[in-house]
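Continuing from yesterday's entry. The apo prediction looked reasonable, so today I'm repeating it with zinc ion included to see how the binding region is handled. Same sequence as before; SMILES copied from the compound registry.
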Amino acid sequence: MSAPYRNPVKVVLPFFVVLGAAVWYFSRPGNTLLGGTVNTAPRHRQVWEWLRHPEAHPDWMVHAGERCGAAPFQIPTDGFIGYLWDDSFRPGHRHTGVDIFGGTEAAQTPVYAAADGYLTRLGDWKSSLIQRIPEDPLHPGRQIWLYYTHMADAQGNSFIEAAFPPGSSEVFVSAGTLLGYQGNYSGDPFKPVGVHLHFSIVKDRGGNFLNELEIGNTLDPSPYLNLPLNAHTNQGQIPVCPEGTTTDEPSP
Ligand SMILES: [Zn+2]
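Holo prediction written out below.
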């Protein structure tokens, strides 16, 4: 007696067809069922590699003060842009900005204003600043905001410059002004993040900034920095200025 023969290909193949279709479906650009999920896995691997061996990848770095081609804003800090706008760290999550990993310890990599504008720091902000840009350089007539965060250590000790204490409001700074230093503050001292700056462009309503945690309240930063920073359309490119298109601002 022998068991009835089953061709293993016929048994296993449908499983892989269904699996493949599911992977394709959930990773499509613009898929909204899981909140616009994209395949962030390759960037997880790159960030992990960068954090362990930053010295091995100088070609992955952007530099504070650089302006890629005709970009209206300058790069706010040194590092590897590891995560992009609308990346996804868990089902339903949509990343509202870019994460620039300095490849250093906390409190070492400076963060500079990306443009001229007016800084605000709310009374309970340990690691964050927001900068009002009265005129969106790409859409004249509307106001936008630049948000800079993770400028504190795991315990919430701030690395923001003393010139911008909690409660600061409408302090004018020009592009290239030192704002603070990259940190690893996450809100949970037991789960610090890798040292980086999170930088995002936030929409305005009625003269106020909207909640930065909602993707719909933020703008794709790609055209503002002239880099491929949209997780859906970036095809595995490391976002750096193409050779010869960089204008360095005077040393900030
Ligand atoms: Zn981020």
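Comparison notes:
- The domain at 38-248 is CATH 2.70.70.10 (Glucose Permease (Domain IIA)).
- The chain has one domain: 38-248.
Will overlay with the apo model tomorrow.
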